[in-house]
Amino acid sequence: xxxxxxxTATPAxxxxxxxxxxxxxxxxxxxxxxxxELLLPAVDRVLA
Length: 48
Prior knowledge:
This protein has one domain (3-47). It is of the alpha+beta class. It has a 3-stranded antiparallel beta sheet, covered by helices on one side. It is elongated and about 30 Å long. The longest helix has 13 residues, at 35-47. The chain is built from 1 helix and 3 strands.
């Protein structure tokens, strides 16, 4: 099973894809005021 993890609790926006054993892909950007703009493109990058 794949797990898509999202973290927006800090100034960083972090997205990761995990397969139960390893992190397959991840993306992290720091910008405390643009979470809404950065989240979906980060998900797209991780799932590509």
